[in-house]
Amino acid sequence: MVIFSTACNSNKTGKVEKSKGENNEPIKIGVLASLTGGLESYGKQTVHGFELGLDYATDGKKEVAGRKIEYIIEDTETKPEVAVQKATKLLEEDEVDFLIGSSSSGDTLAVLPLAEEYEKIMIVEPAVADSITGSEFNKFIFRTARNSSQDAVAGAVAIADKGVKIATFAPDYSFGWDGVEAFKEAAIKLGAEIVHEEFADPAATDYTSNIQKVIDAKPDYLFVIWSGANSPWNQIADMKLQEKGIKISTGAPDIAALSIMEPLVGMEGFSVYYHDLPNNKINDWLVEEHKKRFNNELPDLFTPGGMSAAIAIVEAVKKTEGDTDAEKLIETMEGMSFETPKGTMTFRPEDHQALQTLYAIKLEKQDGIPYPVPVLIRELAPEETAPPVQN
């Protein structure tokens, strides 16, 4: 654990605030991530990306506008109550200037009010629930992660058309609810019919009855929204939906989950990120540097998001010339564009959602790679997948 000592004053509410003008003090960033629990791999990807992003954006100096950057990583354990405890500790004891996180939409939604209470900027990454920048939005929240509606538009573009019958399958919590609602809206606009919605316990070990209800609805496509290690892919394959005339579509997951998607070779869907989809210098740097630092491993699904969050903070503090006052940062970051491994991102002023590139892909087998590879059909431009403003 990193321990800090800073000069500070107390305001009338008893909250601690730094003395104005002390811009030689370090900038402190608190990172909330699932380092244990069901989303452990996502948290580790985000942290790796964040650390690489700080180095990239500061040329390895971890300094911006004459101020050193320090960071503290806390494990939310993928539990909202723990996320609140850890965030409170970061804000009160460590006196961070920024929060980043978290891996779970449930964790993130629990922490959002604290960003407003303590008047600190929170960069949401990689949580995707629409409500984060929708019904639960406050002005201190910015999101580099894509949201469920962006995923939904990309997914709908891949399969929806006039007269196409689609069923959905998703986990029974905010991530799944928001994703299905957004997908439905996008797919119906393209002329498709939603014939069934199936929500399942994300902690279940048997999805047979859920999948059977999908089969009984006789859709042309099953669109799956899922995250985490406990996935339904093996049972979907075992129940031979494709042999029953039901095509499967989804967002291409991380590499670990791709390894069990062999039965879905040929599937068309979308991807948030796969290491050889973006064609830009920052992504080239990320791939090369990640392999150097992490035993020749490739960056995974949420690595570029962590990197983008770090880059966003550094770029914002450059523009404010070292000022970490939240109101000044909000003014600076609204509408701000910055370069990332996925190309240009822009924080939309209305809801602080980062508009970004997604990818229409097809899963294909490639020699020497032990899992189906997301192969680019075409880039989906930020304007093309811009979600509705919902706040």
TrEMBL record:
Alphabetized InterPro entries for the sequence: BCAA_transport (IPR051010), Leu-bd (IPR028081), Peripla_BP_I (IPR028082)
Pfam families to which the protein is assigned, alphabetical: Peripla_BP_6 (PF13458)
The keyword Transferase belongs to this UniProt entry's keyword annotation: no
Name of this chain's protein: ABC transporter substrate-binding protein
Keyword Signal belongs to the record: yes
PANTHER family hit by this protein: LEUCINE-SPECIFIC-BINDING PROTEIN, PERIPLASMIC BINDING PROTEIN OF ABC TRANSPORTER FOR NATURAL AMINO ACIDS
Coiled coil: none
Domain Leucine-binding protein: 26-365
Source organism superkingdom: Bacteria
Keywords: Signal
Assigned protein family: Belongs to the leucine-binding protein family.
Annotated source species: Bacillus aquiflavi
